[in-house]
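This follows on from our talk about sequence and fold. Please put the record directly below this note.
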Amino acid sequence: MRRLFWVGVGVTITVVVIRRGKRLVAQYAPEAVVDRAERTAQDLGHRAETFVGAFRSEFTTARARREAELTAALLAEGQPDPDDVRASGLRASTVRPGRSAVGRHASVPRDVEAEIAADEAELGYSF
C-alpha cells in the first residue's frame, strides 16, 4: 500500500509540474517570438538550399574540367581520346597511332585470350 501511495504522489507531482511548465512557457513565449523563430528557420533553410545548389553546380563544373585536364595529360601524343574510342565501339588497343581502324582487328572479332597473346608477341614481353 505504501508503494501505491508513493506512485500516486509521483504521478500527481509530474502532472502539476507539466501543467505549470506549459503555463510558464506560454507566458514568456509570445507569438512574436515564435513567429520570428519560424521566419529565421525558414530563411536558414532557404539559404542552405541555395548554398547546396551552388556548391553542387560548381563542383560538377570543376570536376569535369579537372577530368579533362587529367585525360589530356595522360594521353600520349596522337592517341585518340577514350570517349571517342568508346563511342566508336572499338577497343582502345585496336586503334593505334598511325594505323587505321580497318584491318585484321576491326574485321575479325577474336576472343580476349587470342588478342592478349598477339599483343604479347608483338611487344616482346609479358606480365
